[in-house]
Known about the structure:
Chain A is about 75% helix and about 0% strand. Chain A has about 270 residues and is mostly helical. Chain A has a domain at about 65-235: MetI-like fold, CATH 1.10.3720.10. The longest helix of chain B has about 40 residues, at about 50-95. At the A-B interface, helix 1, helix 3, helix 4, helix 5 and helix 6 of A face helix 1, helix 2, helix 3, helix 4 and helix 5 of B.
Amino acid sequence: MAAVIPLPRRIANRAMDIYAILVLGYLFLPIGVIILYSFNRPEGKFNFVWKGFSLEAWRDPFKYQPLVEAMKLSLKIAATSTAVATLFGTLIALALCRYRFKGSGFIGLLLVLPLTTPEVVLGSSLLSLFLNLNAKMGFTTIVIAHIMFSVSYVALTVRARIRGFDWTLEEAAMDLGAGPVRVVAKVTLPLIAPGIAAAAMLSFALSLDDFIITLFNSGARVTYPLYVYGAQRAAYPPQINVVATAILVMSLLLLGASVLWQNRAMREATGGGH
Amino acid sequence: MAGIAAGGARQNPIAPYLLVAPGVLWLLFFFVVPLIALGETSVAVQRGPWYDGFQRAFTTYGTHFFRSLRYALAATLFAIALGYPLAYFMAFRSGRFKNLLLGLVILPFFTTFLVRTFAWKTILNDNGPAVSLLTTLHILPQGGRLLDTWVAVIGGLTYNFLPFMIMPIYVSLEKIDRRLTEAAQDLYSSPFRGFLKVVLPLSLPGVFAGSLLTFIPATGDFINAELLGSPNQRMIGTVIQNQFLQVRDYPLAASLSFVLMAVITIGVLAYAKILGTEELA
């Protein structure tokens, strides 16, 4: 059975492996630069050219007050918009997965359209609305915008995760005499929780990273990406790289934890036997 | 299906509408209504005919539109060329490293978009490593530049949207039944012919989805052009942003934004027609 793989085929395979590794290298190159330059000792205003190793920026990550304020604002916006979008998006996903109803096709389209519209159009059309309404730009308008694009991501992510679940478990619980609140708390939520957690993490990350839509609706408020945008014109301290590296490390830890949790939930759901 | 019917019968028929109401109303108020407001703003002309904004959008900024489409198309093609082999590698040849590779591909998303693009500025600047390497290899002439050229802008666009290309292609390759690829090896004279006849057609929906997820944001993006390019590489996003936030010529700004959306919608529909794929999400 185990046929000998012909030499040209082996060479082609080897070539593809090398190509794939080079592409991965292309993906990581800037990340390596970000981490490396957090240890730079830049001369002048820009962290642009390597001048020598230093731990200075890591020792004093909160040196620049505007950066700290921007980060605080971004975290507040991400927390608020994630909470609302996760609730709204999950409810839509539950309805789409569990009921057949008129208009569900339209809702599917409504969820996809914001993702296939360029951000600059989303941002500028919201700005047009706020201008027409004479709304004051700031925290509220940013949060409104972030909820708008996050709802779609949450609904689509949760829907993909809970498709094909065995909902008869809920009926079994009801037949056994559990009330609706107990069913949701004891059966439904534990089943869909990993999907919701993944969607919430995605929503939080998108909010923290959003620049284009926020730029249109921020007024005078400065979020973390807006601070970085201003910094690359005026002065770009290595603390920006420190913050970026810290976010990367924390996301990796969160991601690792959620993968472990999901594996455990899967084992419990399929392994049975309590 | 039985579960749905039984669950639905037991519950109120308006229950699904109550569940979707908050999210759907939010999208209607802050996605659909704003698009109408954008259209309204585009024709709210102070002097001259209602289409004055559109006229100026085409006559003054036609080059920016074409440049944006050209750059986005180039970035999409490069992303296919770079992303397809990597997706293939992940799906068929990575073995037990598959999940690790999946994590690595989305790793760039955990660093801020702007900081990532600024890192390219560090790599590509005139005193940076890329320029000195390429001049030593005589690929770049003495005093040649990478920063402030279309090479840097298209390279940055390709980089930033590459994971959006890799993931859908990977998913479509992963779904292919392994027995089919084995049969293809037996049936066709060369592995490459087998790939062309069996694997490639089955992975086209992934290429389609990945192309949209790359092309659409790349067309509207202006960070790469602003950070890595000169005014000669300015894209339409910069113009829209500038007209809305600095110049505040709202009818012109809204017209530009509206035209961008129309162009992309037409392009996407035409592309869907050519490929014959109705699969979008």
